[in-house]
Design brief:
165 residues, globular
């Protein structure tokens, strides 16, 4: 139980870091590429390795905090992310022992489900959406950053779990 509590605290800490870092003023020069959504990568990877320590409430808190800091419509992303995370929890045992390529493909599907959910609700609510080129850059950079996050989590925090099998 202590490991779950420690990992739950670590999940929240890493989630808050993933939210705050993109908003930190690192340079005055505008960036050419969009910053990836490390939070989504973290949530999906964490759900694959240890879904018990990534509770629905912690995911909801992190997504709502991201909505507030990133000036997104409040509640839209958390709703889509929670639906996708519950789908991931149902198929976790099938995903966990797959190769990195399969996990990557499943993350792309996960991220597509989240983005389609946000897009449908924003169309129904007549909310302003991102320019397609900006959204495409964001989408591609996030997808390309997932393998890095997944491998880092698997080789650092969850390395011990692999050794026991």
């Amino acid at each position: 139980m202590a490991i779950v509590s420690l990992r739950a605290g670590l999940f929240l800490f890493l989630g808050f870091i993933a939210i705050i870092l993109p908003t930190a003023p690192i340079s005055i020069v505008p960036t050419i590429i969009e910053s990836p959504d490390i939070l989504i990568c973290l949530i999906f990877s964490w759900l694959i390795y240890d879904p018990k320590s990534a509770s629905v409430w912690s995911i909801l808190i992190l997504c709502l905090f991201a909505d507030i800091l990133w000036l997104r419509p409040i509640g839209l992303w958390p709703m889509a992310v929670l639906i996708a995370t519950e789908l991931t929890r149902n198929f976790r045992l099938r995903i966990k022992n797959q190769s990195h390529l399969i996990k990557f493909i499943l993350f792309v599907m996960f991220f597509c489900v989240v983005n389609m959910g946000v897009k449908v609700v924003s169309l129904l609510g007549a909310l302003k959406s991102l320019d397609f080129v900006v959204w495409l850059k964001y989408f591609l950079v996030t997808i390309l950053s997932f393998p890095i996050v997944n491998i880092l989590l698997g080789n650092t925090i969850f390395r011990r779990d692999k050794n026991f099998k």
